[in-house]
Amino acid sequence: MSKTIAINAGSSSLKWQLFEMPQEEVIASGIVERIGLNDSIFTIKYGEGQKYNEVLDINDHEFAINMLLAKMTELNIIASFEEITGAGHRVVAGGEHFKESALIDDAALKLIDDLAEFAPLHNPAEAAVIRVIQKLLPNTINVAVFDTSFHTTMPEVNYLYSIPMEYYEKYQARKYGAHGTSHRYVSEQAAEMLGKPIEELKIITCHLGNGASITAVDGGKSVDTSMGFTPLAGVTMGTRSGDIDPSLLPYLMGKLGLTDIKDMIDILNQKSGLTGLSGISSDMRDLEHSDKPEAQLALQIFADRVRKYIGSYVTVMNGVDAIVFTAGIGENDANMRKSIINGMTWFGCEIDDEKNNVRGEQRVISTEDSKVKVLLIPTDEEVMIARDVEALK
Ligand code: ADP
User: Fold this and answer.
1) Cα 183–121–220 angle (5° rounding)?
2) Which atom of ligand 1 is nearest to the CA of 287?
């Protein structure tokens, strides 16, 4: 039997799914939250609706993975560690080097470490997890699946910032984007749903979760995306500002008495977006249940920023066949989908209210007459990771 574990490690969390491959059957999944804090939460789902939960102090990723492997044998999910022949790791920053998923050898791991400057919260945690798996499962193949790889097909006209060219040449200062695995998955699914080769399609994919990004996928290739050098750019997000005028930074730092630019960036990452605008929450559900005008305004701004990116990507690709919604908000929030598409009747794109009244189900949600199809496609980054491991085995 050949099992592959897909691992998505954040700075303080670790999400995973265990697949039987090549059938792509999910045997178990789980999450470890609050790593490095008190009362970490360790959860496994397995079998037929069975669950295992434990609250304890988990100090680091090594402890988390040790515990995970031990529990998997204890709960008879696996008979021995040898059954796990592949491990796929989500890595946020792959820079310009990693144009596709890669087998992890010493050189690749060093590059992942070196790219920490591009994703300081993520790459070090991901590299740490890779090292732990290498140690605990020495016969398992490790594959890195990068958030940025899908976007390495962007033309320079779209990835370059209008700043001195030498900053790109010397320091690789450019747009890299993120959520690539999700954009790749849903665009492939969209082509399947539409029954056309992806090479013939222009698709705009909207990954709307806590983090949100919009991508123009022309002929199966990412040609532009809303996130930038880091995932701070683009549309309004749960706690991130998205695009702003950089001149605001020194101005606000002066007003707020801040001297360290990192504190200002923290505000843009953690205290802005829906949280900052509403003063209530980063969660769409809380805003939709609130009758405070600030909450309603935050919802309008979110929809407006997504709509503007969609409009601009119609221009980038000179047309669009389908718009795809995915991730927490995209999959679950019918009101938000409607609100985003509402302003688009000018190019014959219309939501069917009845079809749109759905959560988390793959389907067409536009009217029969809509020239541009609107699709709801639940994302599945983990299965993409497992597929890439399988392909490199
Ligand atoms: P992450 O980027 O953390 O993976 P998710 O893709 O899980 O985020 O999306 C999380 C967001 O999805 C939440 O912030 C919440 O606003 C939104 N969400 C989840 N369920 C619903 C729902 N039923 N209605 C509206 N929004 C929802």
Assistant:
1) 15
2) 16
Decide which of 316 and 120 is more confident: 316
284 lines ligand 1 (CB under 6 A): yes
Among residues 272, 225, 214, 266, which one has the least CA distance to residue 244? 272
187 pLDDT more than 80: yes
CA–CA dist 379, 361 (Å, integer) = 10
pTM above threshold 0.85: yes
135 lines ligand 1 (CB under 6 A): no
Which positions are catalytic?
147
139 is in an annotated binding site: no
Note the pLDDT tens digit of each residue in 50-83. 999 999 999 998 899 999 999 999 999 999 999 9
Asked, colleague to colleague, whether 2-146 and 196-381 share their fold, the answer is yes
Q: How far is CA 345 from the centre of its chain?
A: 29
> Does residue 108 sit in helix, strand or coil?
helix
Neighbouring C-beta atoms of residue 17, cutoff 10 Å: 22
Please indicate whether residue 231, judged by its CB atom, sits closer than 6 Å to ligand 1.
Answer: no
Element (H, E) at 203: strand 202-208
Q: How many whole angstroms separate alpha carbon 51 and alpha carbon 213?
A: 32
CA–CA separation, 217 and 375 (whole Å): 14
Question: Which residue is it, tokens 């759905």?
Answer: 358
**Domain 2-146: which topology?**
Nucleotidyltransferase; domain 5 (3.30.420)
Annotated binding-site residue? 86: no
Task: State whether the beta carbon of 228 lies less than 6 angstroms from ligand 1.
Answer: no
Domain residue limits, the chain: 2-146, 196-381
95 appears as a binding residue in the annotation:
no
Distance 209 CA to ligand 1 centre (A): 5
Residue 361 has pLDDT above 80, yes or no: yes
CATH class of 196-381: alpha beta
